[in-house]
Specification:
Helix content is 48%, strand content 14%. It has 404 residues and is of the alpha+beta class. Helix 5 packs across helix 8 and helix 8 packs antiparallel against helix 11. It starts with 19 loop residues before the first helix and ends in a 6-residue tail after the last helix. The structure holds flavin-adenine dinucleotide (FAD). The site of flavin-adenine dinucleotide (FAD) has 21 residues, from strand 1, strand 3, helix 11 and helix 12.
Length: 404
């Protein structure tokens, strides 16, 4: 609720705290179901995640206790259509991730990897047996898993990947490596690999307990601290035929379809980060005094707060519009890429402004803004870097490809 009661010309000591979603009546743009889910997730995140997550952030540990608390909520059912889920939409998934990221972008990214990448791939490309065996478990968080596309030698140029499979009797033999794979040391992994017989990229469901699977958590990562990003090597792993995603035909009708879907929703994580920065900065500057006055009473601070607020609102409108267009099947690859690039770039700016406003305390994890500053770097980089997404959009508006 807006508690702004300053009348024009009046100066009061009581300072307003404004919900940036209410300020332009942005909640009115959401459906009753989206509002209800958002509220429920907000209540959970503020009670169970926000007060506890920074212990895990500082230790760079996976928050098992918090993830276990998610299970009874059946939260991940909201990311799937019936019969495996409650029914879903881009916006419903988005508001869940936005609320998660208000507490921690790493926690939101964990949810995104499990749902936008792993579960969406199983839902879109898996057959009934695979869905029954894996999706029902990954949906209920009995299994945790990841999605392996990127390799040490192939990041932006992912379609040139070299992890490979060779057909043998009853299955395939997998060799190669994957890098940066979130949840790569958990239970199950979607592996995108080149079939040496056809030279096409194909998809496989790999269980991490199978012989030949080796995952090392990448050390020294100073962003998205709770996410366990792994360097993985596959050495002669036998994958049974039944674990091949048969409906994948190549890179375009495979990982690229998944990325087209997830890139619509990932900018909602950036919205959550912007909102988190706004809330922490407003709270801080309206409660700390310097030179005998609240920090928020200085013009420089007010300009920063308004810039953060407006950037959040502009980004929200853009991301929501994209989500609605995607739901209607009208979002092009260029539109998706340009929104992802622009919003994640603006998140870096917002995070920097928030960090400045908190002074020395802006580097303490509980004050959020330093996490936002480093996490924004990954939002800007994963799911296609700012450059590549800009060039995808640039190709669409000029008709000229500039990155290959
Ligand atoms: C924390 C984290 C989590 C991740 N999680 C996953 C995951 O779960 N699964 C997964 O498969 N991948 C994951 N990734 C990988 C991510 O998608 C890649 O990091 C990203 O695609 C960029 O690849 P790269 O890091 O190899 O950078 P590079 O491709 O080496 O790019 C380096 C720089 O060069 C620029 N560049 C490259 N090519 C061009 C060009 N043609 N024109 C102009 N500029 C160019 C890039 O924009 C960038 O600035 C994750 C990455 C990170 C950091």
């Amino acid at each position: 609720m807006i508690r702004l009661n300053l009348l024009a010309g009046q100066v009061k000591e009581k300072i307003a705290q404004i919900d940036p979603m209410e300020y332009l009546s942005l909640y009115d743009l959401l459906t009753p179901e989206e509002l209800e889910v958002r509220k429920a997730v907000e209540a959970f995140v503020q009670k169970e995640v926000a007060p506890k997550i920074n212990d895990y952030v500082e230790a760079a540990q996976f928050p098992t206790e918090i993830v276990n608390a998610v299970k009874p909520l059946k939260l991940f059912h909201h990311f799937l259509n019936k019969p495996y889920g409650h029914g879903t939409s881009y916006t419903k998934q988005g508001v869940i991730l936005m609320e998660a990221a208000r507490a921690d972008a790493g926690f939101a990214t964990f949810i995104a990897v499990q749902n936008l990448l792993l579960n969406y791939t199983l839902e879109k490309f898996g057959n009934a047996t695979q869905k029954q065996k894996y999706l029902t478990k990954t949906r209920d968080v009995e299994y945790i898993g990841g999605w392996g596309l990127t390799e040490r030698g192939y990041g932006s140029d992912a379609s040139s990947l070299t992890a490979n499979v060779k057909k043998v009797q009853g299955g395939y033999i997998l060799n190669g490596d994957k890098r940066w794979i979130g949840n790569g040391n958990k239970d199950v992994l979607i592996v995108w690999a080149r079939n040496l017989d056809t030279n096409k990229v194909e998809g496989f469901i790999v269980e991490t307990k199978w012989p030949g699977y080796h995952a090392e958590v990448i050390q020294g990562k100073l962003a998205l601290r709770i996410v366990q990003n792994c360097q993985i090597t596959f050495t002669n792993i036998f994958i049974p035929d039944e674990n091949k995603l048969e409906s994948v035909t190549d890179f375009q009708n495979g990982p690229n379809q998944v990325l087209m879907h997830s890139r619509v929703i990932v900018p909602w994580i950036a919205l959550g980060v912007m909102r988190g920065v706004y809330e922490h900065s407003l709270k801080w500057t309206t409660s700390r005094k310097q030179f005998g006055k609240y920090l928020a009473s200085f013009q420089l601070q007010q300009e920063r707060l308004v810039r953060i607020l407006s950037t959040f609102q502009a980004s929200f409108l853009m991301v929501l519009r994209l989500s609605r267009l995607a739901a209607e099947g009208k979002a092009t690859i260029g539109m998706i890429s340009s929104v992802k690039a622009w919003v994640t770039d603006k998140t870096r700016e917002v995070a920097r402004l928030g960090r400045e406003m908190l002074g020395g305390d802006g580097i303490i994890s509980d004050n959020y803004v330093i996490k936002a500053l480093t996490d924004a770097e990954v939002l800007y980089t994963y799911e296609g870097t700012y450059d590549i997404n800009s060039l995808v959009a640039g190709r669409e508006i000029t008709g000229i490809g500039a990155f290959k």
